[in-house]
Amino acid sequence: MSRKIAFTRPALADVEDAQQWYDGKREGLGQDFLRALDAALARVLANPDQFPVRYTHFRRLLVRKFSYVIYYRYDRDSVVVHAVMHMARNPTLLDKRG
Predict the structure, then answer these.
(1) Within a 10 A sphere around the Cβ of 38, how many other Cβ atoms?
(2) Hey, what CATH class is 4-88 in?
(3) Which residues are paired to 58 by β-bridges?
(4) pTM of the complete model
(5) What pLDDT does residue 15 have?
(6) What are the CA-CA distances from residue 85 to residues 3, 35, 41, 67, 79 (Å)?
(7) Helix crossing, 29-46 with 9-25: angle to 10°?
(8) 3-state secondary structure string across the chain
(9) For residue 27, what pLDDT is reported?
(10) pLDDT along the chain (98 residues), means of 10
(11) Which of 6, 23, 42, 52 could lock 30 by a disulfide, CB 3.0 to 4.6 Å apart?
């Protein structure tokens, strides 16, 4: 059985906001961000244990070429993305997301 990726609503909003911000900087940069995000998530699916727990019970993965991190948790069936946030943001924001 393979795991599925799921996003919480706040995490989906994070992705949309980042994509829009990057598109505002340069046309097509938002799509580049989404491709980098997809590549990072593929690495998580391949081996979710390879990324360390960095904030309470959330594992963290850096998005290559972009200053964003993915905070996630996983179980046998799924990887749940709780946040996709800029590295400068305080991870305590995750406390409100569960």
Answers:
(1) 11
(2) alpha beta
(3) 55
(4) 0.91
(5) 98
(6) 23, 16, 14, 8, 17
(7) 140
(8) CCCEEEECHHHHHHHHHHHHHHHHHCCCHHHHHHHHHHHHHHHHHHCHHHCCEEECCEEEEEECCCCEEEEEEECCCEEEEEEEEECCCCHHHHHHCC
(9) 94
(10) 88 97 96 98 94 90 95 93 93 78
(11) 23
Q: In what order do the strands lie in the sheet with 4-7?
A: 4-7, 78-86, 68-74, 58-63, 53-55
What single-letter amino acid sits at 69? V
Q: What gap in Å lies between CA 47 and CA 31, rounded to an integer? A: 25
Distance CA 94, CA 78 (A): 19
Rg (CA), the chain: 13
Domain residue limits, the chain: 4-88
Q: Which residue has the tokens 């046998």?
A: 76
Q: Which residues pair with 81 in a beta bridge?
A: 7, 72
